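Entry for the shared binder. Reason: the reviewer on the internal report wants the predicted structure included alongside the sequence.
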Amino acid sequence: MRISIVGPAWPLRGGIAHHVYWLRQQLLARGHIVQVVSFRKLYPGIFFPGTTEYDVSRLRLDADALPILAPLNPLTWIRAFKRIKSFSPDAIVFQWWQPFFAPVVGTLVRAFRKSCLKCIIECHNVFPHEGTPLDRLLLAFALSPADHLITHSAKDREELSAIVPDRSVSVSPLPVLKEFYSSNNPDRSGRNILFFGKVRKYKGLDVLLAAMPEVLSRIDCNLTVVGEFYDSIENYRRLVSEHGIERSVHIENRYVPNEEVPGIFERADVLVLPYRSATQSAVARIALSNGLPVIASRTGGLSEAVIENVNGLLCPPADSQALADQIVVYFTAGLGPIFAKNILASNSSGCTIVEIIEQAA
C-alpha cells in the first residue's frame, strides 16, 4: 500500500517525531511505500517554553520528511494537500497530540475525505494536560471526520468515545524505538532513582521531592532528574533546598540527545513517575523495554503499563507519603532484581499499530 504520514518529524525533536520515524520504518519493513509530510515549525516562539524545537542529537532519527506545514498558515495546508493527493495514498495517518493543531488537522482530514481518501488519526493524547474551555470543540472538529482512530490507552479510548461516539477506535501500546534499547541488562540492585523527561506541573516532580526526606530518613539512595524544565527550575531548586536533600538530588536541566537515552536508563535502578494525571507515557515504555522497573501514580495509562508487583509499584497521585512508602518498600524488599527479571522475561513488541493501519486502510 501507499501510506502518507502527517506529523512532526526530524529535524523537529520530541516523542511524536521519534514515533513518526518508528512508524515509517515499520511500514517500509512490511513492504509499503511511505510518504511523510511534516511541519516547518510547530509553535510560535511565544508559545514554546523550551530552548529549541529542533533536534541537535548526533543520532538522527530521520524520517525523510517533507517539511511543508505551518499550523497557522492555510497556504501551507493547501500545499500539503496537493503534495499528498499527488502521492495517491491508500491511507493518510495523522498524528494528534494537541488541540492547537485542530484547525490544520480537521481541515485537511475533511478535504481528503471529500477526495475519497481514507484518514486515520493516531492520538497520543486526547485532551491536553493543561486544558482550556475550547478543547472539546477543537477535538470534535479535528477528530470527528476521521475514518478510524488509534490510541495508546483504554482511558484515551473512553475519552474519544465520549467525543466521537460514532467512530471506530483501536487501542495499541506505544512502541519503543530500538535506538533507545540498551544492549546491557543491569540487575537493578542499586539505589539510583530516575525522573526523566520534560518537567511540567502535571508530572509531579514536586511530589517526588516532597517524598525524598522521608525516603532518605529510612534508606540511603540518590535521585537524578534529567530533562528540560518547562516550569521554572528555580522553584524546584528551592524545594530541594527547603527539603534539605541537596546531597542526594542531582538535576540535569537539558533536552537529552537521542544517543544518550539508553545509557541514562541503564544506570538507573528504578524510574519514578509521580504524575498527577496521565494518558500514556513513552518514558514508562522506554524504561520497561530496558528492563527498568517503574514506580508510578495510579492514573490514566500508567496504571495499564505498570503491573503492580510484577514490573513495578503504584501509588495514589499527589500523595508524597504513599510515594515515599513505595520507594522504601522497593529498595528494602530488593524488588529491583525481581521486577527486572519479570520484565525481561515478558518483553515483546506486542505492537499492532501497523496492523491496525493496514486493516483500516
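Summary line for the report: The CA atoms of residues 76 and 286 lie 34 Å apart.
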